[in-house]
Amino acid sequence: MLRRIILDVLKPHTPTIMDVAKEISKLKFVEGVHVRTYNRETKVESVRITIEGKNLDFKKINNVLEKMGASIQSVDVVHAGKRIIKESSHSS
């Protein structure tokens, strides 16, 4: 069961990040969405999207983004299981 996904997404300036967050949050399995722009270019912007919920459906999330003209560049973090585990501050 996927609980949290953090995505690196490339999108056009329109729709806005508010529109993206609203559309993703309409999915029944989504409990929360956080979208942050970290790079803006002439026609596109790079955003980091954090999605939390229970039993997240990656394909449906991707479909919403594609319909808005966005594309997932990478899946940066995934949390799965009964709870979200806090990331360790040290590496092994």
Q: Any overview of this molecule?
A:
The longest helix has 10 residues, at 58-67. The protein starts with a strand and ends in a 12-residue tail after the last strand. With 92 residues, the protein is of the alpha+beta class. The chain has a single domain (2-80), classed as Alpha-Beta Plaits. It has 2 helices and 4 strands. Strands 2-3-1-4 form a 4-stranded antiparallel beta sheet. A hairpin with a 3-residue loop joins strand 2 and strand 3. The model has no long low-confidence stretch (mean pLDDT 94).
Q: What's the topology here?
A:
Elements lengths: L1 E11 L4 H9 L4 E11 L3 E10 L4 H10 L3 E10 L12
What number of structural domains do the residues give? 1
How widely separated are the two ends? 26 Å
* Quaternary state of the chains: single chain
The helix-and-strand class reads alpha+beta
The top level CATH class name: Alpha Beta
* CATH homolog superfamily: MTH889-like domain
Q: DSSP strand (E) fraction?
A: over 45%
Overall 3D shape:
globular
For the largest beta sheet, what order do the strands appear in spatially?
Answer: 2-3-1-4
* Largest sheet report: 4 strands, antiparallel
Number of helices: 2
- What's the overall average pLDDT, rounded? 94
Low-confidence stretches: none
* CATH architecture field: 2-Layer Sandwich
Question: Summed up, what is this model?
Answer:
By secondary structure, this protein is of the alpha+beta class.
